Structure formats: C-alpha cells, structure tokens
Amino acid sequence: MKRFDLSVLDLAPVKQDKTIHDTFNDSLDLARHVEKLGYKRFWLAEHHNMASIASSATSVLIGFIANGTKTIRVGSGGVMLPNHSSLVIAEQFGTLESLFPKRIDLGVGRAPGTDGLTAKALGRNPMIINEQFPRQILELQQYFSVENANSAVRAIPGEGCDIPIYILGSSTDSAWLAAEMGLPYAFAGHFAPQMMESAFEIYRENYKPSEEFPKPYIIACVNGIAAETDEEARWLSGTLYQMFINIIRNDRKPYSPPVEDIDSVWNAMEKAHVMNMLRYSFIGSEESVKKQFADFQKQFKVDEIMVTSAIYDHAARLKSYEIIRNATDVLFV
C-alpha cells in the first residue's frame, strides 16, 4: 500500500453554544494539537453567508493559525479565486509567506462557496467563471515569479515568493485543468464523492509535468470521526449528519450537538441523500478507521489524505485526530 501524508481541513465550525471568538480559539488549539501529532498541513476553507462556518476571511484566519503554530504548513482549502482579484490574493499570500516562510499553501477553487445571491454580492460573473479561473491561476503564477519585477503591475509582497498552488475540485473539470497546468490536485471527497475516482484517473493519465511538480500529486479530503468505541464514534457523527441535513434544507444554523436518535431528525429521502454525500466518511474506533483508511488507500493510492471532522465537543474532536493519527501510523509499521 502506498504511503500517504495526513492533513487537516478545518471549516472553523460555529457551534450553538459558542461564540465566533471561541471558534477561532478552538481552531488554533486544534492546529497546535495536530502539529504535535505530525500532521502535514492545516487548511481553512472559504465560505460565505453561513452561520455555521466562520472562515470567510480565509487569509486573515490563516495568519492567525500560522502565528500560533511553529512547523505545520497552513493554507487555504481553498480560496474561491473568482471571488477575488488575483493581485489581491497574490499580495495577501505573499504577505503570509513573508511572515511565515516555507509554511504557506494556496489552494484555489472556482466554486462560490455560498449561495447565488451572496455570490452576486461578491461580484462574481457566472458567465465567465470557466474562462476566468484558469486565467487567474496564470496571473498568480506571474505575480509570484521573479520575472514579474519588470512588469507594470507587481505583487509586493508576493513577488519571488515560493507559494505552491493547489487546484481544488469536486468534479472532473478541475482534474483536467490541474493536469494541464502541472499542479497538485485536491478533491472534495468529504461532500462530493461521486466523481472522485474518475477525476483521479483523468488527472493521472493527462498530467503534464511542471518544473515544480514533475509528478502528479493528489490530496483526497474525507470525513473522519474516531473515538474509543464504534458506538461512541457513531454517536458523535450525529453532528456531521445534522450538518448535511441542514445543507439539504438550506438551513445554515450553527452546528448542533449529537442527538439520541438521528432517525427522528431526517426522513428516508434525506438520509439516502446524506449517506451518498458522506460515502467517504471514516467513522469508528481506532481499529475500524484503520481498516477504512487502508481500504480507501488500496483503491485510490493518493499522496495525501486530508481529514475534516465535524465533532461538536472540542475535546472529542482533538481525541479523534489523535486516534486517526495512531490508526494510520500502524498501517506502515
């Protein structure tokens, strides 16, 4: 079985009984915890107009996390690039890289990270997104290059900074783009598993080596909820299930604690939809999640697995990442 690195995707979840200030402190505590456990990177995702997710000002939060940690890579998973000017993102991430050298990642996606009305408020033009997104990646690469010193428009900070760019996707579109551009590819298997296998095949088979990335590099994002027993993990997963029920119902309220009977919350159609979206969710004891990670890696052979964990209790969330680290470590002993 191919070895893989282990990383974290954090959505800065807002919980019913917590403030956003509490959310940010919990995210920092989690980052420090997984840093000690040897996780490779800690990414934050851009979302807007959601009472359950507080990572809208993604670059600001990356700075907060990077400043409170020492070695773990910190980045975006991702910045939704068409929501922004390429120059502004180059300047923001150039500033971050200048503050925290060799620790900053820039993951970029083309989705809005929100609803249609909010996307409009962000200034997006849906008619040009498919043309705009690859052009903006090229603009970022230009702004980060040393050669851009002779250009009329320069990113300072940013110019000459070594900031790896990762292309994010939840379908096959970005797989083609990442392969064409010779960039690493991260797939959102934690909520959009349907096209993951096809996307990986397209990316690997069509990859054009680049100077920075001579070989294809794949990150798969999955849900992970681990506890001392399978029963406890299944109970903790009630928050994850309610989170996705809320997505289906367009109810953006803060995260809810687990419930005694999840079947009292969803109907049969909602359950089927949620379970399909959460196909790649590794839930259980250390022994159970070890097998789930092993089965996944035998099938997909990725370079890195990024785990996001929607657990309501902060201490249980910390413990989950510890159990997952232990479970994956023993796969290669």
UniProtKB/TrEMBL annotation:
Query: Pfam families from the xrefs?
Result: Bac_luciferase (PF00296)
Luciferase-like domain residues are 22-113, 151-298
Organism from which the protein derives: Kaistella pullorum
| SUPFAM superfamilies named in the record | Bacterial luciferase-like
Specify the superkingdom.
Answer: Bacteria
| Record-linked InterPro entries | Bact_Lucif_Oxidored (IPR050766), CmoO-like (IPR019949), Luciferase-like_dom (IPR011251), Luciferase-like_sf (IPR036661)
The protein here is known as LLM class flavin-dependent oxidoreductase
What is the taxonomic lineage of the source species? Bacteria, Pseudomonadati, Bacteroidota, Flavobacteriia, Flavobacteriales
Family (UniProt): To bacterial alkanal monooxygenase alpha and beta chains.
Where does the record place a coiled coil?
A: none
